[in-house]
Amino acid sequence: MSERLTAKGRATRDRIVSTAATLMFERGVAGTSTEDVQAAAGVSTSQIYHYFRDKKALVRAVIAHQTEVVVGHQEAVLAALDSMASLRAWADAIVALQRRLECKGGCPIGSLGAEIAEHDADARADVVAGFDRWERAIRDGLHAMRDRGELRREADPDRLAIMLLATLQGALALTQLRRDTVLLRIALTEAIDHIESFTA
Amino acid sequence: MSERLTAKGRATRDRIVSTAATLMFERGVAGTSTEDVQAAAGVSTSQIYHYFRDKKALVRAVIAHQTEVVVGHQEAVLAALDSMASLRAWADAIVALQRRLECKGGCPIGSLGAEIAEHDADARADVVAGFDRWERAIRDGLHAMRDRGELRREADPDRLAIMLLATLQGALALTQLRRDTVLLRIALTEAIDHIESFTA
């Protein structure tokens, strides 16, 4: 559908999606009604239903939006995760962002995933695809490090990428609950120390 | 209140809580109404409101229940997490359990936490207390390993416990989304390998 939208139509659709993303980040999917989104985005009921058949369709658009924010817009950063220094700087940036957010909301993709995992198989597949992109980006950097000889041959970038992403996800969830970034810094530092143990 | 319950009253209350826990594990907190719990537990409206003022009170009882299931009932297992072999066996048991559950539901405490984190500060504090108990149990085992000289003095049990719990939480969330235990095994193995790198 989006192919056929006019520039104005696309702007309206984008406004609806980014408004929905903000509300769902703050209040969760269940706590955000289509009416809430409509009011906050300043669009009519017929407008919102013109772009999104139902709330499920809107949730999938929010997942796509958040995947772009978390993975798409950071592609340059993630592509440069190919040295110990850049991994440490990336962890610092994540901690700083959580501090700015006062540890609220958790991971924009992970929190959506936790909420829809048992309710909506299509949305679940979208979240998985988002995590796959993220994992691939981390993995590519670790492969580059191994190819350059910065990591020893016995390092397994695929496994290390899985561990790093899992640690990040769990640490973000615990950070959100504890409202404290201390554990986030510790968990990421330990995970990156593990990667560093494979340096040549 | 529970102090003053008769044996029959306690049995009814327990049935309501365990029914609510099962429903919320399967459908989430938002997807489970007090009426759903009432019908599934076979109790009247006045009975459920006799024990729980509102849904919030019921959610807090479910968090306490799930903390007992995940941490309390496993105290013996968690207390014995004081060797590399027991850490590996614990990881195997977690993977086997997820396989039996077909990767559905995620962590019983973590999933509740993700859903209520931004909605209910009291419930959030309860979830944090549950994670604190869990983290302490892991930490105690690692301290025992260091005290016995199985881990070198430079190992920091507090930091390693945080990393292991964060990795487990993230891996369980990703396992639930991917419906696949491969990444769970990899993430836990790598996290435990990191601990093993501190063995004497």
TrEMBL record, chains A, B:
Residues 33-52 bind DNA. The keyword Protease does not apply. This is AcrR family transcriptional regulator. Gene3D superfamilies: Tetracycline Repressor, domain 2. The keyword DNA-binding applies. SUPFAM superfamilies: Homeodomain-like (SSF46689), Tetracyclin repressor-like, C-terminal domain (SSF48498). InterPro entries: Homeodomain-like_sf, HTH_TetR, Tet_transcr_reg_TetR-rel_C_sf, TetR_C. Coiled coil: none annotated. One of its GO terms (molecular function) is DNA binding. Keywords: DNA-binding, Transcription, Transcription regulation. Residues 10-70 form the HTH tetR-type domain. Pfam families: TetR_C_13, TetR_N.
